[in-house]
């Protein structure tokens, strides 16, 4: 077999430091055109960067380098603003209020009230459902932590629309025959998958090394840049001989709409039908606003309970007679903002108050929306914002001294999930937003996008409601009644047939690994859960072991026993039998069981102490490249031979240092480059590190961070001497083997124009300004996003965020999971504080602090966290009147902010003065970067249980 080419380890990269706007010494990334949210370097007030007065300008990004096979990638750094689209084609005439006594009903609708029908529960498991990443990136072989400066390229779009290019992948639609096409909608039950578990997350990807041409089955849903950008992204591999596979991420996601609704079609003619403007506002105090998506409800007639709401929710002069409501009536509709002091604004003296600690779990603040929108809004368990009241301007956000960002748990396990099968997935022709509960129906034939405000046609098929079997009621469709839905995507969303579930296990079998005894635990757990691995009849599985050599196993059907194939040439590793090393799970199940039973005893008397992890990973990459899938690596020591070998960098005498903590970044870029190659071939690498000595997790974790994998760490593992770690490994493996999984996934986040995303946190590869490439996605992975306000939100009273996750299920179905969140816009600083979500703020700041620790120093990160508390509380005290300036006063919403920051300081990731092993510190940082909010809060601020009150069932 001819030797495979070696990994290319030289690449020109540029660096920039972590950005942050918490003081006047803010660091701005060279790739960002706006001040980015970050950390303070001192306790002074932030600067207040000027807010652009231009109305939705076109954004032009610097050209993308063509020598990078992955394009430019933002991660843990500033990203050029995205989503600021000109309202091309949007109908901007404002609605005039009707005369007194006349119902306000759009044309084509009656004034009868309506209610959404309940979705029927699916009795069977329809396909594969599940409910579960761009920041940390750095590293060069110098051993010093760095971050890569990533310049993002966007597309000059026609008609002033930025980053909304029409896809080159066009789909045809069958002409309407006059008969409505039926579509199915199920509510999927996934109780069998509701297992709680922890898993690693990580950072994102920066500059890519040369790698194999990415392959994907994503098409119409999650990619929408230009073909020019894709030309820069796709390139041939320098690390593998695998055949290039067509990959056109951006063109696929951008054009999920049928040909009949392509961007080339002319917009609908302007009619005399009353239409809403960008947002639904009341133009007379006697007529309260109809929220987006609710203009078709029963009109509200004038009553004594109607009065103008506070600033930030309504605007415009009263044009009709006004009847003012009582205070209680108005507070009920507006949540009390600006009228009466809400509970979240009640000042609390943190020095004198004795009842600060919560006696019940802390719930996120509810957005101040009307009751109907609150019911339709996305669950905070899936989609959460640090501020549930969005400031109208960046200047107001700077005054509040609070970060603006999102916490995402997009693939989490759900008990009920509306699943929609339809030949037409309705999306905005301009910004590609999926239709959702917060759009406005102008009439039965047109709807207005709630992100870019463009007017779109309602497809004929969408007029039919499969639940009620009625026609002409698009506002009752399940897509418009649920903020979290999942679509069964058609072949238009694929570039190749969906890949099968492919699992490759790579075991360390050196002397150290055999002494730890992990093989017996892992093989036994895999035997017990072999039939529970997610997949179908196409599922494939393979095994590789390594010490100072690399061993492969032929499990082809028809053999009487497994065959071991040893490759000792680790400097130029190759696949001895490429077609026989990955076998069908069902066809070769008996051989697989024989191998798992034999492995724990196969290397009992080995004397090999070296570990050739790098060559084993190179072999795994070559084996998985044709299809993609999941590689699970078990490692017990420092790699000592072959490519990617490492040397110990830890000084045990510095574990308790209160000064500089070194070596938080990787020692080599080998594992990062290999991970980027794997990501391009839709392969994720999960790492299980079971070690009693320093193993340089800072370097090894890169292969999971940049390939959308996860990391598990078991310090001082021994199957006999450490039964606690053994039990933990068994529980983690059961969850790991049986939880849902999504393959060849991409995720895009969209937001109302005026808002921009500039930094992502998690484990993934950043393919464009807002498109994340996830080779694998699991229900235990969380992500964080930093945002800024680029343009004043003066023309809207509501903003929306939408995330769309396109993935291939383990059953081979292409699916799109969509979450949509709606929040109000406010003009008062007190309202901003009232809507502060202290837990979301803490988790976002923790992600930012990890980046600061790696790019700068641990002491800088700790100072930044302290300044974040000092500045926010100082800003509140300087704004609120009649407060004792000599006391520490905080709004009720932020009463736990100092406590949570103190708890964060005690975590292994940030603590000083206490003996902390370097691998323990790195693993804690990895958890912060990848865990969803609910898991991360349990780590930072765990629950306490009264032991003497525990029952036998709940006892430890």
UniProtKB/TrEMBL annotation:
It is found in: Cytoplasm, Cytosol; Cytoplasmic vesicle membrane; Endoplasmic reticulum membrane. Residues 742-826 form the Sec23/Sec24 beta-sandwich domain. InterPro entries: ADF-H/Gelsolin-like_dom_sf, Beta-sandwich_Sec23_24, Sec23/24_helical_dom, Sec23/24_helical_dom_sf, Sec23/24_trunk_dom, SEC23_SEC24_subfamily, Sec24-like_trunk_dom, vWFA_dom_sf. PANTHER family: PROTEIN TRANSPORT PROTEIN SEC24B, SEC24-RELATED PROTEIN. This is SEC24 homolog B, COPII coat complex component. GO terms for cellular component: COPII vesicle coat; cytosol; endoplasmic reticulum exit site; endoplasmic reticulum membrane. The lineage of its organism: Eukaryota, Metazoa, Chordata, Craniata, Vertebrata. The keyword Protease does not apply. It is a peripheral membrane protein. Pfam families: Sec23_BS (PF08033), Sec23_helical (PF04815), Sec23_trunk (PF04811), zf-Sec23_Sec24 (PF04810). GO terms for molecular function: SNARE binding; zinc ion binding. Belongs to the SEC23/SEC24 family. SEC24 subfamily. Residues 209-218, 233-243 have a biased composition (Low complexity). Residues 425-461 form the Zinc finger Sec23/Sec24-type domain.
